[in-house]
Sequence to fold (190 residues):
Amino acid sequence: MTATYTFDVFSSLDGYGSHSGDWGGYWGKQGPELLDRRLALYAEEQRMVFGANTHRANAAMLASLPDEVLDPWVARMRDLPATVVSSTLKGPLDWPDATLVTGDAVDIVARLKEESAVPLRSHGSLSLNRALMAAGLVDRVQLTVFPVITGQTGVGPIFHGGADFDLELIESRTLDGNTQELTYRPTLHV
Fold:
């Protein structure tokens, strides 16, 4: 039996994964339901999978913030075992339980899916996850859509340059009255 792989990503309505503006974290739209939901998602045993850029960004952010100001789900994510796929990083990594793996991401994640006793989850890591989706290794895309349009300040178009997919909606919920969490099963569109 293979482990389920979830590509978990935050997005503006216009498809950007982050911004260069003065919106703040979560585009300033976080609320108690969102934060509780995130903590529940990360409470389960699972293994995180990150690419080099996301690992660098997360490690820098977490190093600059004291634990008491971290959202509980972020602290939990940091404490989960992680595999970092990179050809540019050198160990040891500044992450409590991270394993650095060099090689082809598709081969690495295919092997992880076969060997892991727990589900796999990746938060961010856009280019890594676009490649994994094209290879058919992503079982779920969990898209949290914040009620903003970042036409001027959007950074990191989530699916730009990726393959075409048909999506089957398998779960949806509204958090704090205006943020949508949509979970899809992707199928390569041929």
